[in-house]
Amino acid sequence: MVRVPFRAAADRVRHRISQLTGPKSRGRDTAGARPATPARTGAATPGDLTGPVRRPYLRALGMFAVVVLGAWLGLLAVGSIRTPVGPMDTNMTLRPSLTGGSKINVSPLGALELDSHSAPLRLDVDVDRLDPERSQALVDRPERFSNLQDEVTRDVAAGTRELAVRSCVAVVSGATALGLVVYRRPRRALAAGGLALTLLAASAVSAYATWNPKSVLEPKFSGLLSSAPSLVGDARSIVTEFDIYQQELARLVTNVTKLYDATSTLPVYQPDPGTIRVLHVSDIHLNPAAWHIIASLVEQYEIDVIVDSGDTMDHGSAPENGFLDPIRDLGAPYVWVRGNHDSPITQAYLKKFENVSVLDDGGAVNVGGLRIAGTGDASFTPDRTGPGGNKEAARLEGMRLASALRDQERAGTPVDIAVAHDPNTARETDGTVPLVLSGHLHRRINEQLKLGTRLKVEGSTGGGGLRAVQNEKPEKVHASVLYMDRSTRRLQAWDEITLGGLGLTTAEVSRHLPEENLKKDGPVSPTPSPSSPTSGARSPERPTPSP
Fold it and tell me: Is 0.85 surpassed by the pTM of this model?
């Protein structure tokens, strides 16, 4: 009487264990039923933990690939509109992108890039042509220029709305059509279209949440001088035709800075006639092409003073001194501090130039409407004399410079800009001066120090010097134009100019504003950017140095 219920209970336990662990044989189980085979149900064989979950993941991945590819094809096919923006005819398109942002293409001159948003979509605006009728209307009625910014804003907003509607249709249609081709089931195709619409909506929300309207204050313009490659040639011809290369590189800078002014109709910071323009260069390292670049920038930006934070030479020897002679003809006052590759011989030679102010041991000078103080580097690298790049020696030199700056403050002649070659020296001036410039690292750094001083480290204006040919890739050429307010003598904005390096003909100009200026809610005053013949600013004749 007790045995039968016990056997039934044991059978139930064995059956439950069999369900949990899977069949151990292909025979019949204790209940007399044949277990389903893995081939029919997709169940896992003993020890296989991935069988039941592998196919759903593959199906989901396949669906995602179909949706993305279909949406992209839809955008390519019909996801663009042709719309007027001010006096220009443009094509506006949404493109898949890992970084987002907006790009305005002015073919074949170059492109203007804005860090406007972070989303997997980028807005491309291709400027096709300048409409002659709308342009003539602006010429006939100059008062319309004052409303041009509002007109451009309205046109862009209207075009963006139309582009959003068309992009939705393009994305859904493309994903649905490709889903129908791949799966041949209407339900799956509609699911692909719905998922594409969801992804587009999520991207739109991401773009809206990260929208940065102040990105127009910091545009980046890149351009390519189409004639330079044919005139300069490959790297081998640079050796034999270096003079041509220097001239074309300077011409490239000239054209790019003009294009930066001519192609941008955005409300960017633009200096007024009272702005003091400072050109910061560093680490030329005996590259003669640097003088052509500097001369071009002096002319285009109408520079008031050039600041060189050292390492103009390589070994500081007397035979190298002739390399410095073009400084006489750059057309602007030149402020210089000694770098670790510059010797006392170099320093003594430059002191003979009428337009050069050599700063050392915290000495200060009034030049270009600014008071600038600086010190030479604590070491001289080529002959291994002195501390040789010792960080503590650089810091001690910085402390002496900071002490000199405090003395200037107490004397009623506060310094506007301090200059030191080594950033370790420059950091010690924190709290004693609004702005300190340095070099040495061959890369740019912009940093607000703890006590309020802004540290700006410039890259190599000589592209690392002629030794750069030993590197696997050419080192880029760097220089910056600083815009200083004439009344407060504080930094208002700066342009970073970057060239592709030895043998390359690409150029890039990007505008930056200090954080405190970006936080201002008020509009930025619209006056001309880098000087061009149409800017209305002064344009004195300045000679270009000979090679």
Answer: no
